[in-house]
Amino acid sequence: MMEPTPDASEWFPEEKCKAKKTWLQQTCCRILRRGPVPQHVAFIMDGNRRFARKLSVERAEGHLKGFDKLAETLQWCLDLGITEVTVYAFSIENFKRSKEEVDGLMELAKQKFKRLLEEKELIEKHEVCVRILGDLTMLPVELQQVVAEVVHISRNNTKAVLNVCFAYTARHEIANATKELAEGVQLGLLRPSDISEELLEQCLYTNQSRDPDLLVRTSGEVRLSDFLLWQSSYTVLSFVEVLWPEFSIWHLFSAVLHYQMNHHAVQAEKERSLTERREQVQQSDFQCTMAELGNMCNGIDETNSVQQKVAQYTQDREARINRFLTHLNNKRLQFFANLLPAES
What we know:
- By secondary structure, the chain is α/β, with parallel strands linked by helices.
- The protein contains eleven helices and six strands.
- Helix 4 (about 60-80) runs parallel beside helix 5 (about 100-120), helix 5 (about 100-120) packs parallel to helix 7 and helix 10 packs across helix 11 (about 300-340).
- The longest helix is centred in the C-terminal third of the chain and has 45 residues, at about 250-295.
- The relative contact order is 0.13.
């Protein structure tokens, strides 16, 4: 297995990508940037093991090639103006694989995140915020500590975002969000009537991100494999019949073009859904207010009074939600803080 040269950037192969990009690729990149570019792209990086079998090499070599492709793809995304990328790095289901393979993946992840810490200057140069999404308690403690430090040093960067889903499935994420809401009610921070689709979204691991505009899956599989199920309701899907280590800039261009061809219709449907959601919340506030007033609403004066009561109820509900979300955010920040070395 070839090791990178000491001065080579593993996470930010900017010069390497520039050298490899042809005039035609550069021209296509400029043309695509003139249309609607997806701001958030998610990748299901499937096919590393099949790639290893195809080349008759060890699985670990396939996973390493998969990481190299990720770094290259991140640079392509930056060049296109894509400012947020989410990758499915390790599913909770992957723990069912052999102990040897799981241990190897954990070790590879630890090495690569340590390397990212060594490239701190490049994180700052590119202003990349790195977030790790998933149930990190399932990971080895040493890996938890490394990823916590990566999250910590990049937390204030705002130019680009890399979300790494590790020990993640969408069903686990949604179940965890409902537990957070139940705890909020139990602590008296929320009322059951405060719970809505929007509030549940804000309890997901992805609560700091917009929903993905485009989701790309490689290897020819045409399923989401429990990845961002809630967030992908209005996401353009692109299924590519190529193994992840063989993914090329042309495949990315094709996926972005596919997004541009469907952008208008998807955005219109998304706006309609958001309007319906706002109306549902308004209706809920009205019903809760009427329940508190005992359905006593007769006459214009009382109608005006009801409107004032509804406005006050909405204000109180929003205050409760803000207190709850502050509590939730502090709890998550504390989890990472507890993993950091003392000097951080």
